[in-house]
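tool_call: predict_structure(chain=1)
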Amino acid sequence: MNREYHTWFSPSLQRDMELLVFGHAGEPVLFFPTRTAHFYDYEDWLVIEALRHKIEAGNLQVYCLDSIDKESFYARDIPPSARIARHLQYERYVLKEVLDLVRKRTSYRTFVAAGCSLGAYHAANLAFKYPALFHKMVGLSGRYDLTTSMPHFEDLFEGYRDEDVYYNMPGLYIPNLRDEYFISLMKKMEIIFVVGENDVFLENNRLLSNALWEKGIWNALHLWDGESHKAKYWRHMVQLYL
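tool_result:
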């Protein structure tokens, strides 16, 4: 299995960023890490190993991104407005820098966005905001509204709201989406949510899935036994849904 390490100084983030690429051909997958996790975790957790057959067969080329969650959503030492601003810098890094790398390595012009836990949020938010760039989104054990408090998970903006927060929470902006152009693009996308029946994020997934269906946007919501919010489950999920 082809494995490549890439690092460069990011103008968008003003810091060094790292990522891993697995595979030589196939659908390019932007694979976002879990909450505050790193670009090497999916490899360490054997999630990439679970995809070995698809990767070696040239069906998938997986880009494991790093996160800056500790500098954005989980940076309690800065105000909420600065947290969402830092997140938007990360978004620019992905759109302008990571996708430049991907485009140099593939003939595909649309991509797959995927992730587990908070990585699922990153994948869904990016794909739904920029549907012309993505033909598939896979969210495993995701939370799609970071302003909603629930057991063991708090409102990451401590009650603060502005337009940047609103337009980066799929659970908030999708129910109110009226733009027919965006809706038409999203109707072309394969959208898959997977969550455990006992996962605290279950209702969050159901609400977002229903909001998409109300717009006529196809999506699949797959429920797994128990909580299913660990790497041992994600290893099976990626084989089925990526």
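agent: The chain has a mean pLDDT of 97. Proceeding to next step.
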